[in-house]
Amino acid sequence: MRRLVLLFMLLALILPMPAGAVVWTTPTTPTTGDPVGPTFWDPQVRDNLQYLYDNLGATAGFFRGCVVRTHVDSDKAAAQVLLVKCDQVVTHDGIGTANWSNLTASTSSTGAGALDTGTEQASTWYEIYAIRKSSDGTKNLLLHRAKDFLLDETYDSDDATVEIRKSTGTRTAVAQGFKVDTTGLLEFVDVELIKVGSPTGNITVTIQSDAAGVPSGSTLDTCDTYNVANIATAAQWVRFVCRSPATLTATTQYHLVISGDWTLSDAAYIGWRADTSSASYANGTRTQLEAAVWNNTGTTTHDFSFKAYITRNDTAVTMPSGYDGRCLIGYTYNDSGSNLDAFYAVDRHVIPLENSSLLGSASLAPPDSTHGWLFDIPSHVPPVPLRAGFYMDIVTTGGAGGTGRVGPVPDGIVLSTVRVGGEARLTGGLNTGGTDAGEAGYVPTETQAVYVTETPANAIDNIGLSWYEW
Predict the structure, then answer these.
(1) How does DSSP classify residue 2?
(2) Half-sphere exposure (Cβ direction) of 271: Cα atoms closer than 13 Å
C-alpha cells in the first residue's frame, strides 16, 4: 500500500492537472479501526497530494524538456528571450501542463511577456519564469530582476600582518568595525589572510553587534569555518560564506570578528593583513580580544583589509493580472550596454553563444602555485549555487607547458597539484613556444566567484566560461 501512495504522489508531479480541477481543501484523519481499503487509503492519498500542492509553493516549480535562449532573430536578440519549447511545466501551485512553445519576454516593457515590474536595468541578471492562468490556460513568459551582491564596504590597503591568536597578551581574536550603507543580508565577506609557520586548527568568522566601539559578544551570524592548513603563506583573499545570513541595518556599527582554535603562538599563526600606518576607513577600527577583554588600545588608527557584500533586490515576483502559476525556467544577463548576452539553454544547462572570456585585460595574481586567487565573475553566472565549465589558453615555452587550475567557492582556497574532483585543470605543452587551448573541466561553486591559480606565473593567457548548470 505504501508503494501505491508513493505512486500517486509521483503521478501528481508528472501528470498535468486540468484547469478547474477539484483540489481538497479540508482533509480528514482516518478513524482508528477503519478497515484497510478505500475508506482508509483514499484520505491518505488525498492528504499527501494536498501536501504536495501546498508545499510546491516553497519552490519555483519543476520543468522538463525546455529549450530557452535569446531570440533567434537578430533584431530581437538584444532585448528578448525565447522559449522554443517545453515538454512540461509544473508551476509553483502544483499544476502541471504540457506543450509550451514559441513564447517570448522582452526587457523593453512590463507585464506578461515582459518585465514583471520596473524598467530595464543594465548589468543585471533576470530570472525567466513560465507563467500561466488557471482560469483559461493562457501561457506566457515573465522576466523578474534577480538578486545581486553589492560590494557595500571595502578596505584594500595593508602594510602589516596582525596575529589573530597570539600568546603575548593572550590574544584570542581580532575584529574590524564596519557600517554598511545598504540595509540587507550579509551573505559573505572577504578577508585578506596569511599563514606564518605551521599552525594547526580551524578559523572562524562571525558578525557581532557593537558595545561602545568593540564587539558585544552577541553573534548575529557565523560564517564558514576553514582548516588553517589551507591558508597560503603569501597574502590571500579568502571568502567566508554565511549560511544563515543576518540582516544588517544601514549606518549601524557592527564588527567582523575572526577567531580560531589553533594554539596561541607568536611564531605559528594565521594573520590578518592590516593598514597600521595610514588607515582611512571611516566606519570602524581594529580591536582585539586580549585576556578575555575587547580593547582598541593603540589601534584606533588601524584597519584590516576586508570586503562586505550586501544582498539587494531579493524580492518576490509580481504576477501580471490573471496569472496565478509560475515556474522558474532560467536566467538571462542584461549587460552594461543593456543588451542580453546571447545564450542557449536546455533545461538547466546553459551555453554562452558569444565571447565568454573571464579575464579580459586583467592579469592573475595568485599567492602561489597551489593557492587560489579569489576571482569574481558576476557577469558570467547568476547569483545561485551552480556548477560551471571552463576553458583555458595556456602559454607554452619551448615545449614546456604551464598549468592552470580553477577551484570552487568555498573549497578552492588551496588547489591540488594533481587534478581532483571539484577542480578544473589544464596543462599546456602540445605547442612549442605557443598557446594551448582546451576544456579544463568544471567546478561546483557559489557567490559568483571561483579561485584560480597557475604554474608557473603567467601560465594562463585566458580563462573562459564554457557552460554553467544551475
Answers:
(1) H
(2) 21
Q: Residues 75-120: pLDDT tens digits?
A: 999 999 999 999 999 998 888 899 999 999 999 999 999 999 999 9
CA dist 414 and 271 (Å) reads: 17
Q: Tell me whether the omega of the peptide bond preceding residue 456 falls within 30 degrees of 0, making it cis.
A: yes
Q: Does an H or E element contain 44, and which?
A: helix 38-55
CATH code of the domain occupying 355-469 = 2.60.120
Buried b / exposed e across 132-166, counting CB within 10 Å, b at 16+?
Answer: bbbeeeebbbbbbbbbbbbebbebebbeebbbbbb
**Ramachandran class of 280: left when φ > 0, alpha when ψ lies in -120 to 50, beta otherwise:** alpha
Burial of 428 (0-12, 13-18, 19+ CB in 10 A): buried
Q: Which three cell numbers stand for residue 439?
A: 576544456
Residues 42, 44: Cα–Cα separation, whole Å: 5
What residue ranges do the domains of the chain occupy?
2-58, 62-147+314-351, 150-311, 355-469
CATH value of 150-311 in 3.40.50.1860, 2.40.110.10, 2.60.120.820, 3.90.1640.10: 2.60.120.820
CA torsion, points 225, 228, 231, 233, in degrees to nearest 10? 160
SS3 189: strand
Q: Per-residue DSSP letters for 360-400? A: TT-----SSSSBPEEEE-TTTS-SS-EEEEEEEEEEEETTE
Domains 150-311 and 355-469 share a fold: yes
State the Cα torsion 438-441-446-448 to the nearest 10°.
Answer: 10
pTM as predicted: 0.86
Beta bridge partners of 227: 202
Convert the pLDDT of each residue in 319-366 to its tens digit. 999 999 999 999 999 999 999 999 999 999 999 998 889 886 667 889
Signed CA dihedral, 420, 422, 423, 424: sign only:
positive
Q: Which amino acid is at 210?
A: D
